Recover the amino acids of this structure.
């Protein structure tokens, strides 16, 4: 199994590893800390092959399901497999397993390796640049979106910081996006997360609000920083308190900088939390099911 997460400094990366340590006894796990960087994913696949596995599930640990989904699927040949299935009139889904295509010499009774995942031609040489050569069957699942386990973990963060829920406002903050339509999609995800949290008992708090930072886009982030600062200031009315929770995979964002001078308490993102490990394992199990459906032999974990 490959955990593909954004990555940062040693502490950020190690926090992710520690959060998933409970899975090490059940699965062979490698990490590819990058934004779908080909060399890091290829290295992780090679390590899994050396450890004796026959299939790999790439778990995309990003906020959005579509974050790097197309890149990874093309990298391992899942787009080719989808086209083949559609050509034959069968059902094709986005999260599916790729079985490496054997070379033409196989059909002539000669022994050959699997070649490139999802590739065509002898040993995969006819594939375009950017594909990863691997004998493993590969699939990919992930994207936190508004998953109930994510919502539960964020609410858990707030509860640990809470003193008097009836006087406290939870403020969810996320990275956001530069393009307006993509940022609007982020806001919809945050709205659904907030609703999940209310159903799970978060309605005991005074309110649950949300916003994105759009932190990487000068000229757009200023308006959103002002919005969040206003939320924090209003939350303090009537002896209230603001609990700021980063809706992130791990750690925190730019809250300390953007909320400088304000009175609030700050939580952390999804990892480390036992619910994060449960979410990752759900992605792994779905991937194993997809791999097994496309392979005659059981897929080693």
């Amino acid at each position: 199994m490959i955990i593909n997460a954004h990555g940062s400094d040693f502490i950020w990366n190690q926090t992710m590893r520690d959060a998933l340590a409970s899975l090490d006894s059940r699965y062979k796990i490698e990490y590819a800390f990058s934004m779908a960087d080909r060399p890091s994913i290829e290295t992780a696949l090679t390590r899994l092959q050396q450890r004796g596995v026959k299939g790999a599930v790439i778990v995309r640990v990003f906020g959005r399901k579509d974050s790097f989904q197309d890149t990874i699927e093309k990298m391992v040949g899942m787009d080719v497999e989808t086209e083949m299935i559609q050509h034959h009139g069968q059902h094709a889904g986005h999260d599916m397993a790729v079985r490496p295509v054997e070379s033409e010499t196989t059909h002539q009774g000669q022994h050959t390796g699997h070649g490139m995942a999802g590739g065509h031609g002898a040993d995969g040489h006819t594939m375009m640049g950017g594909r990863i050569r691997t004998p493993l069957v590969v699939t990919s699942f992930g994207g936190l979106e508004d998953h109930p386990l994510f919502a539960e973990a964020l609410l858990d963060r707030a509860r640990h910081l809470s003193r008097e829920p009836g006087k406290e406002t939870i403020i969810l903050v996320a990275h956001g996006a530069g393009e307006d339509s993509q940022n609007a999609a982020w806001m919809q995800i945050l709205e659904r997360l907030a609703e999940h949290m209310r159903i799970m008992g978060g309605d005991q708090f005074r309110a649950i609000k949300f916003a994105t930072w759009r932190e990487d886009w000068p000229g757009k982030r200023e308006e959103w920083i002002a919005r969040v600062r206003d939320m924090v200031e209003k939350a303090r009315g009537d002896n209230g308190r603001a609990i700021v929770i980063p809706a992130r995979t791990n750690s925190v964002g730019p809250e300390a900088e953007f909320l400088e001078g304000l009175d609030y308490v700050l939580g952390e993102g999804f990892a480390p939390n036992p619910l994060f490990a449960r979410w990752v394992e759900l992605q792994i199990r779905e991937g194993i099911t997809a791999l097994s459906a496309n392979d005659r032999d059981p897929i080693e974990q």
Remarks:
- Residues 180-199 form the longest helix (20 residues).
- Residues 2-144+275-293 form one domain.
- Residues 84-88, 91-97, 99-129 have pLDDT under 50 and may be disordered.
- The CA atoms of residues 155 and 201 lie 8 Å apart.
